[in-house]
Amino acid sequence: MQKPRTKAVGISAVLHTYWQYLRQRPWTLGLIFGSSLVLQITNLVAPLYMRTLFNLLAGGTPDTIPLSVLLHLLVLISVVWIIDWMAVRSQTFTTAAMEARIMTELQTDAFAYLLEHSHTFFISNFSGSLTHKVKQFARSFEGLFDAISFQFLPTCMFMLGAIGILFVRNYILGLLLAVWTVLFVSFQIWIAKSRQPTRIMKAATDTRVTGTLADAISNQSAIALFAAHTYELARFKVTIREWHDATRKLWKMEDWTWAWLGLFMLVIQIAMLYGTLVLWKQGSLTIGDFVLVQSYLLTAFNRLFGVNRDLRGFYGAIADASEMIEILRTPHEIIDASKARPLHVTKGDVTFVDTSFAFTPTKPILQHLTLSIPGGQRVALVGPSGAGKSTITRLLLRMFDVKGGSIEIDGQNIAAVTQDSLREAIAFVPQEPVLFHRSLMDNIRYGRRDATDEEVLEAAKQAHCHEFISGLAEGYETFVGERGVKLSGGERQRVAIARALLKNAPILILDEATSSLDSESEHLIQDALAILMQHKTVLVIAHRLSTIMKMDRIIVLEGGSVVADGTHDELLAQGGLYQKLWSIQAGGFIPDEDAETNEEDMVGDRE
What we know:
six-stranded mixed sheet, elongated, disordered C terminus
């Protein structure tokens, strides 16, 4: 798991990212904020009519006030309220439609960028944490835009209007409200900024909790097999305790904030009421002005309290979004060259030219490896653990980039061709195939997404998985569970082979593709592999002698270098490491000798 980041992306970076999506919709934004402006005008105008009505009622009697005058005022107030209702509906409907669309684009773009990150990136991050960040990225936009469009800007418009109207009625009231508003908002902003580090810490603990849960749930079988329920619960308690401490600290700060805001409200309410009474006593204000002032104050209190609530959500959303934006700003490790062209495979020649690779400078995996595999040749890679077998195949797939030298296919440097065309030309069957939680039909068709049902069935028959699939209640429409857990190891392996058969790529990599099969299944699969390997360049990482002995050539690796190269009989005659591996083999397997755990083991096998 990656260590928690200590520095998050700033507010300006988050807002700039979201603005790139908003700026494409000027007319929609205009309608939203235009509706908000109309709404604030109605909120300011309605109390003015109410002031007139109350002054009229206070200065007369039922006999002296014509009904037509009262009805006229009622109609005006009703019209204002209807316009208010229309403005609210216009703003909310338009905002909902726009936010849904932008949130869809945000998740799509984040997912697309995320998928382009390297294998190293994904094995260094919890899948659950990444999922959480993508979803929070979109949800944060909703929170931020709602806060701005429904609270911050409308409150600013209303307070400016209220201050202006009160200033016209009496400059003392207007000035008093203006000074108080500036102090109140400044205090809220200061408080919100001071809490931001705590919010960022809480967002990080949220992500760690999600990652810990996902890691444990996805590995539940291992927890059960090792009787590690208590251990995993203890680990989770440590993580959830960090979340508790950060959350409790933030909530405590917010409780004190609300206490001070309430005091602010109490002070201005007393001051405004006192000022209104004094000015009424002096004859400067009317009874209707009492209604006007109280109406504006009640609305102002509601809005400004809302500002505090939304400021909390605003900065919380900033903290949540910053984690995904940090990923979006992280350059992809494996990228296509600026003028990359599609790979064109003619013969399928694979050549490693003075190739070197290391995960860390002090621990090289491959050292100046030079290796030529002619097109159509079937080659087995053997050697002890840590020799570089899996690294060679993953470098060929360009899951990592070489540190020195190059790898060529038919004379084309794979670093100069597009990654998609490279991987389209290679079929890869890993030792532990991972399937999608989709139907068997979809999983096999993944080898060639435009294949017909008939072609999928034919590939399944060749891989001998049609037999067990036909016996399932839902047949090819059976969902296989997360990572294919509903299938046995041998069944997953056969589905993976069917997928490779369907892909029919000119270069084939088999990472001990028969390791999970029993003897009967292996016999069937060997026939399928014989068909699959025809007219292809094949690299096999193998331990079963039944696989190795059928190869045209065996390459023995040790310490990232080729130490022997030849056929089975030639290598036995030469002696050396291959003969040693042969002499200690048992049950038809060449064992992986104990070697130090290295980065190849961790990176090469983790999905």
